[in-house]
Specification:
5 helices, 6-stranded mixed beta sheet, Deoxyribonuclease I, Chain A, single chain, DNA-binding
Length: 270
DNA sequence: ATGCCTCAGCTCCTGAGA
């Protein structure tokens, strides 16, 4: 089975591209970020027509996340339980025996700013919640726009961008702490092309020059790690007319072995 | 050069993104 995440920077603008992409890449689950629309405008019908059911958690102007899936999703939860937040950033659900969390992490704007402090507290809130989720649901996938690079390999200009937003020690510490709960960066489980990024600035021909950052991630839990067959960034839609500034990331899990694992009770429901 | 794109909206500029 395949799961993917994509920050589409306005679903109003990008709906045709998302539909086209799903037709070409019929993944089982797609997490979307930055819908920038309220729930009453969410295009359920357009997704239903191509075989997807959807749950959305929208918001006016900014943020907004959704989970699309070929099979029905249950146990849908919005945002981080236990962390009060005005912004629509997280949606999670049970799909195909997995607990799937789609998240739009705060940008943080600039180290030292109020938004950076919010990002830090949000990351702590997420980590506290994911810790308990992993106990209840060992088969867990956390994916989305993390707005954090793991290390210099994720940065087109590590020297020039040192200590700037997405690249600070504080953010990377939080990301490592999250991973330390028992998660794995699916992308780095495999050899990857050098200078692989998931976001490129709209300005200064960022994509054409491959001046980007890898800030969109798919984390899989310990139990799922042996089942990860591949992970890639699909740059194709970044070449569209009026593209999102982010590219989708796709992970493939070995489903047959997954089913055996579940049947043998190695990974059981809490 | 506190800009360069792009998007939403209290829309012909501003705030925010990353």
């Amino acid at each position: 089975m395949k799961l993917a995440t994509w920050n589409i920077n306005s679903l109003t603008v990008r709906l045709p591209q998302v539909v086209d992409w799903l037709n070409a890449n019929p993944v089982d689950v797609l997490a979307l970020q930055e819908l920038k629309m309220t729930d009453d405008r969410f295009p359920f019908e357009a997704f239903h027509q191509i075989g997807y059911s959807a749950h959305c958690f929208g918001q006016k102007t900014y943020n907004g996340v959704a989970l699309l899936s070929r099979s029905p999703a249950t146990g849908v939860i919005m945002n981080i339980p236990g962390f009060a937040d005005d912004m629509a950033r997280v949606i999670s659900a049970n799909v195909e025996g997995l607990r799937v969390i789609g998240a739009y992490f705060p940008n943080g704007q600039e180290p030292g700013s109020d938004k950076f402090e919010y990002k830090m507290s949000w990351l702590k809130g997420l980590r506290d919640w994911v810790r308990t989720e992993l106990v209840k649901n060992p088969r867990l996938v956390l994916m989305g726009d993390f707005n954090i690079t793991f290390d210099d390999a994720d940065v087109w200009d590590p020297v020039g961008l040192k200590d700037t937003i997405h690249c600070t020690d504080d953010e990377r510490y939080q990301l490592r702490a999250l991973v330390s709960l028992g998660l794995h960066d699916a992308f780095r489980l495999f050899a990857q092309p050098a200078k692989s990024y998931s976001w490129w600035d709209y300005r200064d021909f960022g994509f054409r020059r491959n001046r980007g950052l890898r800030i969109d991630h798919i984390l899989v839990s310990d139990v799922l790690k042996p089942l990860v067959k591949g992970c890639l960034i699909d740059k194709t839609p970044r070449k569209n007319e009026r593209p999102s500034d982010h590219a989708p990331v796709i992970v493939e899990l070995l489903q047959a072995e997954f089913l055996n694992l579940a049947r043998d009770g190695v990974a059981t429901d809490a």
